[in-house]
Amino acid sequence: MNRKSLVAASGATLLLATLLTGCGSSGGDVEAFCDDAGAIVDGSFLDDVDANSTDDPAAVYDTALERVDKVDPPSDIEEDWTMTTEAMHTYLEGMADLDPESDTYSDDMDTLMGTVDQESLQTASDNIETYLSENCEA
Question: Would the N or C end of the chain have less CB density within 10 A of its end CB?
């Protein structure tokens, strides 16, 4: 298994789940949103992505972003979902340019994380987590 691809797949799943748990267009169907967001939170939305099939972490990130962009949030949570998905784009597009084997990787990640308003992102993430717990079956 290619270490860089494994890091890419693992990183994408972990980052997206973290952004969504605190850890499209308006008016989407609540049940469909719950299913889609749940798959992102538990990482199953990338189950069919084989990190071994590519030496290009950007391909894994692109797949993750395409799938996240297809989620249609209900209007009640749309603003928070948009904030979170924009942060995902910033992080994953930035991560595609980083080398996890570089001596500066940790510092580079810190710099990348600093490009997004963490307080606003945390609020949006908390709002999504609350919405999911109140409106989606466990």
Answer: C
